[in-house]
Specification:
The protein is 0% helix and 52% strand. It has no helices and 27 strands. The chain is mainly beta. The model has no long low-confidence stretch (mean pLDDT 96). Strands 16, 17, 18, 19 and 20 form a 5-stranded antiparallel sheet that branches. Strands 1-27-26-25 form a 4-stranded antiparallel sheet, with no helix packed on it. It has a 4-stranded antiparallel sheet with strand order 2-3-4-5, with no helix packed on it.
Length: 304
C-alpha cells in the first residue's frame, strides 16, 4: 500500500471531501464556515461562505453541492490540534444547504424535517433516485446530548423526514454499491450499523433492540470514535476512525478487513476519484490537512 502524501495544509478542520471530474477536490472547512476547492496545481479558492458549521458535502443530480450544516461547533486547541468542543455560542439550528459551485450562491433547502428538528446534520449520500440520506449528529452541551437519527430528503426541497430513530450520535453514512443497504456509523459508541432499503427513503422493519432497528456489523475497541465513511467497489465500509487514527476497513459481513493508519488522531473522512477510482483523499482535520494515497481497491462510484 502506498504512503500518504499531504496535498494541502493550513485548513480549518477540513471534512466532507468531494472528488471533482477535473481532479480537484472540494471540501468544507468547518471551523471557517466555508467551502474550499483545492486544485491539482496546489492553488485553492473559496467556493462559498456558508456560515455555521458546514460538515458533510455531496454532489446532487443538478450539479450543485448539498451541504449538511451542523450549525457550528465551539473549538479548542488541544496539544496543537484544533478540535470541536461543544456548541457554537451563536448556534440556532442545523440545516441542509444547496450551493451553486459557479456562483457561490448558498440557499437553505431545509431547516427542519416534517417530523423532527434538524439539530446537527453531519454526513450525506445520494441515491440513484435523486434523493439523499443524511445523519444528524446532534449537538453537545455541558450536561446533555441530543438524541437523533437518520433522515431522507428530496433534492427539490419538497420533503425531508426522519426515517431511523434513535441512534447514538450518528455520523458517517454510505450506500452499498448496489444501493440496497445503508450503512451508518455512531461516533461515541464506535458501532457500525446496516439497514436494508426497500424503496427510496424506506428501510425494512427491524427487529433489533438498538441501532434504530438495524443490523449490527462492527464495533471498535479501546478509546476509539467513528466519524464519516465511504464505501469501496468491493462493498467494504471504510470508516474514518478517531483516537486510533486511521481508516477501519470493514467487510459487508462485519469483519475488519484492514486498518490504514494515519498521522492525525482526528482523521474524519475519505473519498475516491481519478479515472480508476483508486486515488483516495483523506481529511486530517485536527492538523488541518488533506492527504492522498493510492488505495488497494477502487472506491464505489457515487450516484452523481
Amino acid at each position: 500500500m502506498s504512503e500518504l502524501t499531504i496535498l494541502a495544509s493550513g485548513l480549518r478542520f477540513p471534512e466532507g471531501p468531494v472528488a471533482m471530474p477535473d481532479g480537484s477536490v472540494i471540501l468544507v472547512e468547518i471551523a471557517a464556515g466555508r467551502i474550499t476547492r483545492l486544485r491539482t496545481d496546489g492553488s485553492r479558492e473559496t467556493v462559498a461562505e456558508t456560515g455555521g458549521g458546514p460538515n458533510g458535502l455531496a454532489l446532487g443530480p443538478d450539479g450543485k453541492l448539498y451541504c449538511c450544516n451542523n450549525g457550528g461547533f465551539g473549538w479548542a486547541d488541544m496539544q496543537g490540534l484544533l478540535v470541536p468542543h461543544g456548541t457554537a455560542s451563536d448556534y440556532e439550528t442545523g440545516s441542509i444547504q444547496r450551493i451553486d459551485i459557479a456562483t457561490g450562491a448558498v440557499e437553505t433547502l431545509y431547516s427542519e424535517a416534517s417530523n423532527a428538528p434538524l439539530c446537527g446534520p453531519n454526513d450525506i449520500v445520494f441515491d440513484t433516485a435523486g434523493g439523499f440520506w443524511f445523519t444528524d449528529h446532534g449537538k453537545t452541551r455541558a450536561r446533555s446530548r441530543d438524541v437523533t437519527g437518520v433522515f431522507y430528503a428530496r433534492a427539490d426541497g419538497s420533503d425531508c423526514r426522519e426515517v431511523i430513530f434513535p441512534l447514538e450520535n450518528p455520523n458517517g453514512i454510505g450506500l452499498s454499491p448496489d444501493g440496497k443497504r445503508l450503512y451508518v456509523a455512531e461516533t461515541y459508541t464506535a458501532k457500525l450499523w446496516a439497514f436494508d432499503i426497500v424503496a427510496p427513503g424506506e428501510i425494512a422493519a427491524g427487529s433489533g433492540l438498538s441501532g434504530g432497528g438495524g443490523t449490527f456489523l462492527h464495533g471498535a475497541a479501546g478509546y476509539t470514535y467513528f466519524d464519516s465513511l465511504g464505501v469501496d467497489s468491493a462493498g467494504n465500509i471504510c470508516v474514518a476512525t478517531i483516537g486510533e487514527s486511521g481508516i477501519s476497513v470493514v467487510s459487508p459481513e462485519g469483519g475488519l478487513v484492514d486498518f490504514v493508519p494515519t498521522p492525525d488522531p482526528f482523521t474524519t473522512n475519505i473519498c475516491w476519484g481519478g479515472e480508476d477510482m483508486m486515488t483516495a483523499w483523506i481529511t486530517l482535520s485536527g492538523t488541518g490537512q488533506l492527504a492522498t494515497m493510492r488505495w488497494p481497491r477502487p472506491g464505489a462510484r457515487l450516484a452523481y
